[in-house]
Amino acid sequence: MVQLRSLHRIYKYLYTDHRKDIQALPYISGSMFTVNGPEQQLKSIAHEENLLINRSFTDEPEIRAHQLQYLCRKFKDIGHIPIAIPRNSYQYMYVNDEYKFIFCMMPKLACTNWKRIFLALSDKFPNKDFVFNQMWSGDVHDTWAKHGNTLDKYSFPEIQKKLQTYKKLVFVRDPFERLLSAFKDKMFRKDSPVFQNIAKKIIRLKRSKEVNPSEQIKFDEFVKYLTDPDTFEVSYEQHWAKYQYLCQPCLMNYDFVGKFETIKNDIRKAFEYMGIKIFNETVFPDRSVSYKNTESSKITQTFYNKIPKIYLKKLWHLYKFDYQIFSYQMPDYVSGIDE
């Protein structure tokens, strides 16, 4: 039997260093949860966290990091977290030795724009205007592959030292919105043989007929493919892989958690936190000018409403952990199927 702390004690534990900066959480009398078994423990953790979170608090990236660390400790207690960081995750972690920070970059989270900024920070690229305004996005990724300073390029002792002493930052977004963005961006690209082959493979498997080159993959077919245990390998393509596999949020002890939904403000806060003085949020190639959370959510819901519930439930369980540890609310169109 596992007994979880009351919300009052959790509040004291999480926010000891922030009491002057945030409004006190109300004390909830008798808020003690006693649960049995792993599944009940998972539900209790999620329920406890939902009560704990106040929306005004989650605007602060450092507070989000405390929430993340708290939840990760709970999941570690019931064996849901690996014991070591896989080395292949280090390729997503940019290292800046001058400013002493590590920044984990995941696809579909303004990754190209972050690479522009970090390339511009390097002495190898003195022409900042070229990096920001003239370098084609494809060239950004090619240049990054050659010159990007990522954690996997260091020795194990160096990695351990940096993980212990450097600031660590990560940006995330609603997992289902990220998945849909990856689908729309990658599955219809004529200039990407890799993704075209994946799309053709999905159509061939799900339609049981020859693939017409003009045919396009449907979102429900994509979802069925991701949730099919027989097609395990494609589920871990980096553009839609789980956060836990890319940036290891429960092993990295991140100090700063930015969110795509508040990217404009979080970029400014990230620059301040990293100590970068030469840039500001207006220099960042902003793709959020036309991005509105409400409109994006409606578009996302339109796509997911067309998914049969049996597959939507499987998809939810695939990304449920990412939702929970980063304190994202369950989407309305998923409510009721996770029983």
UniProtKB/TrEMBL annotation:
<keyword id="KW-1133">Transmembrane helix</keyword>
<dbReference type="InterPro" id="IPR018011">
    <property type="entry name" value="Carb_sulfotrans_8-10"/>
</dbReference>
<keyword id="KW-0472">Membrane</keyword>
<dbReference type="InterPro" id="IPR005331">
    <property type="entry name" value="Sulfotransferase"/>
</dbReference>
<dbReference type="GO" id="GO:0008146">
    <property type="term" value="F:sulfotransferase activity"/>
</dbReference>
<keyword id="KW-0735">Signal-anchor</keyword>
<comment type="similarity">
    <text>Belongs to the sulfotransferase 2 family.</text>
</comment>
<dbReference type="Pfam" id="PF03567">
    <property type="entry name" value="Sulfotransfer_2"/>
</dbReference>
<dbReference type="GO" id="GO:0016051">
    <property type="term" value="P:carbohydrate biosynthetic process"/>
</dbReference>
<keyword id="KW-0119">Carbohydrate metabolism</keyword>
<protein>
    <recommendedName>
        <fullName>Carbohydrate sulfotransferase</fullName>
        <ecNumber>2.8.2.-</ecNumber>
    </recommendedName>
</protein>
<keyword id="KW-0812">Transmembrane</keyword>
<keyword id="KW-0808">Transferase</keyword>
<keyword id="KW-0325">Glycoprotein</keyword>
<dbReference type="GO" id="GO:0000139">
    <property type="term" value="C:Golgi membrane"/>
</dbReference>
<keyword id="KW-0333">Golgi apparatus</keyword>
